[in-house]
Amino acid sequence: MSHLAPNAARQALRQCTRRLSVNSPSLISCTPRTCIATHGRRSYVSESSPKNATVTVESTIRKDQKAFMAETGIAAKDAKMPTTGMSADAMMSPAAGILKQATIMDEGTRPIYLDAQATTPTDPRVLDAMLPYYTGMYGNPHSRTHAYGWETDKAVEQARKHIADLIGADPKEIIFTSGATESNNMSIKGVARFFKRSGKKNHIITCQTEHKCVLDSCRHLQDEGFQITYLPVQSNGLIRMEDLEKAIRPETALVSIMTVNNEIGVVQPMEEIGKLCRSKKVFFHTDAAQAVGKIPIDVNKMNVDLMSISAHKIYGPNGMGACYVRRRPRVRLDPIISGGGQERGLRSGTLAPALCIGMGEAARLCKEEMEYDTKRIAALSKKLKDGLLAMEHTSLNGDAERQYPGCVNISFAYVEGESLLMALKDIALSSGSACTSASLEPSYVLRALGSSDESAHSSIRFGIGRFTTDAEIDYVLEAVKTRVNFLRELSPLWELVQEGVDLNTIEWSQH
Ligand SMILES: Cc1ncc(COP(=O)(O)O)c(C=O)c1O
Ligand code: FES
C-alpha cells in the first residue's frame, strides 16, 4: 500500500509532467497509476514492484497514446503519433519534411530526453521521500536538544547508510557535499594540501580524459607548486597500467582516475588501479559520478580511498553529492570548507536534510533496482548501437566491451555534429559534457583518444536512463538515420565519397 495520504495536495504533487515523446499531446499530466496504465512508466506507488511493471514499461507510445486519448477524451486529430517512417513525400521535399519534423513541435511538447549523463530526472519516489523534510520535519539535524533535531538527524543518518550500502562502505565514511564537483575538489585539493603541509609529497597523477572539475582542481594545484602527471589514454579510452606504474614516484600523494567516463562511458580498470596504488602506498581517488548506482561498486574490492558521487546522476536531487573518505587506513585531507566542524570536520555547514534524504532514497532505489535497470538499459543500448552502427561510416567511440551501456557515443562521418544536433531538435542530445556544451571546440576527451577534429566534431552522445522507453529508441533510430542521410546528401564531401574518391588523397588549395 502507498504510505501517503491521498489528499488533494499529494495528488497534485504526484501528477507526472513527463512527456514521453515529442509528439505526445501537450500538457500531459497524470497520476502514477494512470501513468503506468497509459504511458508505460514505472509507478512509484509502493505496491507496484519493478518486476510487475515490466510489461507496461515496454509498451509502445502508439498504444499508450491511444489509451491516453480514450481516457482523456483528446481527439485523435489533436494528438500526433510519432512517425516511425518518413513518407515518400517528405523524402521528396527534404526541407519541408525532414527538418520540419525536427524543429517544429506542437506547443508544449518537449524533446525525447536522451542526455542521461548530463542529468537524470528526479525519480518521483525520491521526491516523495524528500517532501516531509521541506514541510513538517524542518529541524536542524545538528540540533541535539530537541525532537525536531533528533528526527531529522535520524533520517539523514538513514540516508547516509543507503549511500554507504550502495558502494560497500561504512556510513561513517560518507561525507555529504553539494555534488561531485565539490567532492572532486575536496578530495584532490584536500589530500594535496595535507601532504604539502607535512612537506612530504607534491605529485598527483590523473588522466587527460577526466571531467573538467578534476582537471581544473589539478591546474590550481599546479599554481600552488604541485607537479601533475596527466596520463594519456589508448584509442579505446582506457589508461595503460604500465603508464600508471611508471608515473608513480616516491613523492606521489594521490592518483585520481574516474570510474566511468561521462562522454564515452568507458569503465577504467578500477581493481587493478586500486591494487597498484595500495601496493605503492598512494591514495586512490575516483570520480564515480557516472558509475555509482549504474554499475556494481565496492570500495574495498577496488581499494578506493576517496570517491566522488553525485545525486542528480542517479535520479536524485540537484546540488547534492557525497564523498567517500576511507577510515582504515585513514585518509588524511585538509578541508576546503571550514566552520562548525560538521561531517567529521571535513565539510562544515548545516546539512540540507531533504537533499540528503533524497540522495539516500535515490541510492536505495539504485541498489534495489540495479539488476532490473541494467537489463533494460543494456537492451535499449544494444538496439540503438546496432541500429546506428549499421549505417555507413559510423563508429563507436570508446572500448565496446568495457563500456557502461547507458552511454553511447557515435561518430557520423561527413556530418557536422552541430548541424546534426540542430537537425535533431526533437531529441535532447549532446556532443559531450553539459558544462562544455556551449563551446564549439571539439571534445578534448575524443581528441585524447586520437580522434581527428572532424571526427570529434561529428560525434553525438546518447544517454539512456531508467525512464527511456523502447518506443523512444525506435523513434530516435529512425530520426537519426533519416536526418544523417539528409545532411550527407547536402555535403560535397559525401558526394566525393560516393564517387569513390579517397578524401585523404585530395590536395586542398589554400585561399
Ligand atoms: C564524471 C563527472 N564528474 C563530475 C561531474 C559534476 O557533478 P556535479 O554536477 O554533481 O557537480 C559530472 C557531471 O557533470 C560528471 O559527469
Ligand atoms: S505522462 Fe507521466 S509518464 Fe505518462
From TrEMBL:
Function: Catalyzes the removal of elemental sulfur from cysteine to produce alanine. It supplies the inorganic sulfur for iron-sulfur (Fe-S) clusters. Plays a role in both tRNA-processing and mitochondrial metabolism. Involved in the 2-thio-modification of both 5-carboxymethylaminomethyl-2-thiouridine in mitochondrial tRNAs and 5-methoxycarbonylmethyl-2-thiouridine (mcm5s2U) in cytoplasmic tRNAs.
InterPro entries to which the protein is assigned, alphabetical: Aminotrans_V_dom, Aminotrans_V_PyrdxlP_BS, Cys_deSase_IscS, PyrdxlP-dep_Trfase, PyrdxlP-dep_Trfase_major, PyrdxlP-dep_Trfase_small
Chain ranges of the Aminotransferase class V domain: 112-476
Protein family: Belongs to the class-V pyridoxal-phosphate-dependent aminotransferase family. NifS/IscS subfamily.
EC number, UniProt record: 2.8.1.7
GO molecular function: cysteine desulfurase activity; iron-sulfur cluster binding; metal ion binding; pyridoxal phosphate binding
Species of the source: Acrodontium crateriforme
Official protein name in the record: cysteine desulfurase
GO biological process: [2Fe-2S] cluster assembly; tRNA thio-modification; tRNA wobble uridine modification
Gene Ontology cellular component list: L-cysteine desulfurase complex; mitochondrion; nucleus
Cofactor(s) needed for function: pyridoxal 5'-phosphate
Gene3D superfamilies per UniProt: Aspartate Aminotransferase, domain 1, Type I PLP-dependent aspartate aminotransferase-like (Major domain)
Domain of life, source organism: Eukaryota
Entry keyword set: Iron, Iron-sulfur, Metal-binding, Pyridoxal phosphate, Transferase
